[in-house]
Amino acid sequence: MTNDQMLSRVPEEQRKLRANDREFNRSFRYATNSIKTSKYNLFTFLPLNLFEQFQRIANAYFLILLVLQLIPDISSLSWFTTVVPLVLVLSVTAAKDAIDDIWMDVQVGDIIKLENNQFVTADLLLLSSSEPLNLVYIETAELDGETNLKVKQALTVTGDMGDSIKDLAAFNGEVCCEPPNNRLDRFTGTLTFTGQKYALDNERILLRGCTIRNTDWCFGLVIFGGQETKLMQNCGKTIFKRTSIDHLMNVLVLCIFGFLAISCSILAIGNRIWEQQEGSTFTAFLPRQDGVNAPFSAFLTFWSYVIILNTVVPISLYVSVEIIRLGNSYYIDWDRKMYHARSDTPAEARTTTLNEELGQIKYIFSDKTGTLTQNIMVFNKCSINGKCYGDVLDYTGQRLEITEQTDSVDFSFNQLADPKFMFYDQSLVEAVKLENTEVHAFFRLLALCHTVMAEEKNEGDLLYQAQSPDEGALVTAARNFGFVFRSRTPESVSIVEMGVQRCYQLLAILDFNNVRKRMSVIVRSPDGKLTLYCKGADTIIYERLHLSCSKLMEVTTEHLNEFAGDGLRTLALAYKNLDEEYFREWKERHHEASTSLEDREEKLDLLYEEIEKDLMLLGATAIEDKLQDGVAHTIEQLAKADIKIWVLTGDKQETAENIGYSCNMLREEMNDIFIVAANTPEGVREKLSSRHFLEHPITFLLSRHARSTMKPDSAEDELLCKMLQGDSPKVVPDESVTGEYGFVINGQSLAYALEPTMELEFLRTACMCKTVICCRVTPLQKAQVVELVKKYKKAVTLAIGDGANDVSMIKAAHIGVGISGQEGMQAVLSSDYSFAQFRFLQRLLLVHGRWSYLRMCNFLRYFFYKNFTFTFMHFWYAFFCGFSAQTVYDEWFITLYNLVYTALPVLGMSLFDQDVSDSWSFEYPQLYVPGQLNLYFSKTAFMKCALHSCYSSLVLFFIPYGAIYDTVKNDGKDIADYQSFALLVQTCLLVAVCIQLGLDMSYWTAVNHVFVWGSLAMYFIVTFTMHSNGMYLTFTSSFPHIGTARNSLSQPNVWLTILLTSILCVLPVLTHRFLLIQLQPTVNDKVRLKVRQMKAAPPPPPRRIRMRRTSSRRSAYAFSHAQGYGDLVTSGRFLHRQVKPRSTGFTPTGRTLNFSPAGRSAGYSPTAQNQNSKGDLEPTALQMYRTKQPSY
């Protein structure tokens, strides 16, 4: 049974399978683990591939022509004139499609072995592993984009089998579980074995797409295979992307077919008239066949001319287009300037069909984290007990800019410190050494409240595996400041506090999720105190603080605002001392809720809310997610190219805004920045009341006030009236505004804006702004925004991202670009192009994209010109041959014209031509604009090309006709025969189209010279060969033009005719281009003139000095999108091996260890106050803010 048959049967309600029993499992007809990446096998390849190819209109058209050519009464051309190019096209395409990829052959119920670093090829129930407690460490980057390791554990009953092949082969457990589905985070089922039933959840399952890490071996039972795996269930339908030129070509081909039908009809009518008036005089020596009269002759003539004029749609066009696209794709792959050496990642064109679309991008939709930023988090600043740390101050208290020359903090007192960690504020280290109670409590929380796993291969060499980069940065910061997270067991967390090993009993983990936006741990200290430590988004923590923290909260809020001005990600920290009796009672209720089979999550959330109240604020952290190199410059360049960039991010509004300022998308000098941050329709109406738009309250989301500010005369325009009447336009035109504006909207407001009744208003407002930032958006909303712009704007879109949550918008956009960064490879695997850094996007678009578009447009214009000119000659000749469907050229010239004589020159132009160099393309990004406006190839350009071809064909036919009419050679012999005329016409044609190619080409290379001159030489060599005596004697019927070439081309008047026709063909072109450059020069003309004047490369761009910005905008901490694995930490199933006693790795410090402070710690103070004596210290700010001294 095929996979398609399997998918078409009735959906499962429940899956049952038995280990090591294929007969039992086969009765359910489950999918095998076979995954096919093509549609063919050895036997079906030829028929299916041909069937697919002939579904293309052009191929089917040429097949019909071939059939017509096999009818003697219709065809005046030999069959090979169509068979040769058709077979060539079908063969090239078939070779391209002949790819197949099949995975290993396993079936549901089989037990398979996996080893370290192997790819999991099916959804497996983990049975046993090499690690203690039957653990397996996996990397899920291909599933969810996260590179941190996750842990799975087998049931004890199956883990006891170990790697015993005998026991594994005898295992006959039965699994009853959920049917195939696409939920990656959940699995429900049971295992029945030896009369016992065991519960199965997601912690026992290894999903296809994971990679085994740090585990020597493991065994698993196949639950789902092939198309039924959760990975394959999540593979949404991939949209077949086609360029705007492809769509235009389809329209033009249909128009050409219509033109062909009209032309053939005209010639058929001409044949009937000629047969009635003149044909009877020829019947004496050209008798008609029986039953053939004038009307029937016209009918046959129609189909004969369909065959002759078929070159208006040459089949070689499609082959040439594919070769050009393939060549330009290789240029991207080979571009060393898009290679990222640090990660050893080259740029990759993952498709060959969209290159020219890169030169027409109008809208870019970009993720923020990992795309604009590095997604490498650095602990930058913090606020502890109302005091801000992280800035470097001079002697006057002014903040200094941190540079590479700034001295960093010396952590040599801590032998367990991370040498890569950098911090510059000495006062925080001094506070730690002085045993400041609040500072110690701050870092103790960071060392305890997390789900990080530590690995220590060598003494003191710690490696943290964190659920998110933010969490890893916080634990690393605590490590360097003397609170080192060293190891953990299911019941405890071991840390080193200022050189002293301490073990905290881990009683509960209240894990993070997207709703809670916080996590907490409950621990018992070595001295027996119960404490809840909590960290989370500042707004969430503030709602749960004790009233006594109000003053401290105000001060901390000021610091948070300052952190936001620097574009930092923030997190608030708090704690709560717990009563022993209350916690015992709460723990019992927690156990009941955690083992409940119904509404487990809801019950746990209520318990978490209950205990996470009346918290005491400790402070806040500020983490920097640095911009990638060159982001600001790239955005500036793309903006000059009139490309609009919309940022779609899951981060909070304040964070997104400040990144917008950091990369110059938002600027203080903008006329205005419109912010829409309403959470409910009622909130929107409240805002509208101040705007006097009560009659349409919801439209404030779409900001008619914003539109009236940007363009006062647009409030009641025609488009708005149509929208209010429910008449939605198909295309929303661009609207020009005075000034520059920004537009920021959050996810909840965006949900309203994307409703059908408001989407047009939102789109108009956003498109009038220079910058658009959508924050707190879901992956689905990202795709919806892209689809909205595609729906109503006649523009090409590009989406760029680096994570699994960007896949939907990457697939939705015309072009999808994946960044291979810290969030796995799923975005790359779904993309059309990929590279390692956002800055490479400007080279992809401004250089490769623009060149590809320019080359393709030049190719199409020239290709249609040369073929229309070639075909029109047959049309004019029909009026001189009695509309008899005789060809003006010999058959071999017709066959080789597109395949040999003109193929390489036009390919050379299409692969190597460039109007200006890459450096000049960067110097003048405005060169990109014509591509957005479709100026190089459009319906208008096509009509101009057709008219040009018509003129050239008239010159190339009638000038030779007049020159050879009643002409004799030098010896008085007649030269005006059909064969001589055919030779003269085809020679004039080939020379003229080669000259036209030279005029169209801007950049001559050695390859271009070889192709052009070589093709002309090939023509004369082949012509003389075919007209030779030897070919005539060998193949008399195929080569009847004996001696024509040497007789005709030896006459001076023939060469004069060739020269005259060439001059007359190119003279109007030169005149037209000269006048346009003088009267209406394009930006391309101006830049090329400047290049010629300078005769050198452009000057290097000026250095940009980044100005520091101050702002009151808030930023926020961004958690991982996935739920944490706190349950696993406390379950006793994650441990690698028993922790051995280790040295603390600390140099004795602190007063309790005879520490001698230095610097400000030793008593120096700008205010000359003694800071050494503990008894003389003033009450801390925390003691002043709080009603009583807490106990840690």
UniProtKB/TrEMBL annotation:
Parts of the chain that traverse the membrane: 251-274, 294-319, 859-880, 892-912, 941-961, 981-999, 1011-1035, 1055-1076
Location of region: Disordered: 1141-1179
Residues that coordinate or bind Mg(2+): D367, T369, D802, D806
Keywords, alphabetical: ATP-binding, Magnesium, Membrane, Metal-binding, Nucleotide-binding, Translocase, Transmembrane, Transmembrane helix
Reaction it catalyzes: ATP + H2O + phospholipidSide 1 = ADP + phosphate + phospholipidSide 2
A GO term for molecular function: ATP hydrolysis activity
Xref: Pfam families: Cation_ATPase (PF13246), PhoLip_ATPase_C (PF16212), PhoLip_ATPase_N (PF16209)
Enzymatic class: translocase
Keyword Cell cycle: no
Domain P-type ATPase C-terminal residue range list: 828-1081
Principal location: membrane
Protein's membrane topology: Multi-pass membrane protein
Domain P-type ATPase N-terminal: 18-83
Binding sites annotated in the UniProt record for ATP: D367, K368, T369, E471, F512, K535, R569, T649, G650, D651, R776, K782, N805, D806
EC number: 7.6.2.1
Active-site residues per Swiss-Prot or TrEMBL entry: D367
Cofactor(s) of this protein: Mg(2+)
One GO term of the biological process aspect: Golgi organization
Biased composition range(s): Polar residues: 1144-1155, 1164-1174
Gene Ontology CC entries for this record: plasma membrane; trans-Golgi network
Family membership noted in the UniProt record: Belongs to the cation transport ATPase (P-type) (TC 3.A.3) family. Type IV subfamily.
UniProt protein name: Phospholipid-transporting ATPase
Protein's organism: Denticeps clupeoides (denticle herring)
Gene behind the chain: atp8b5a
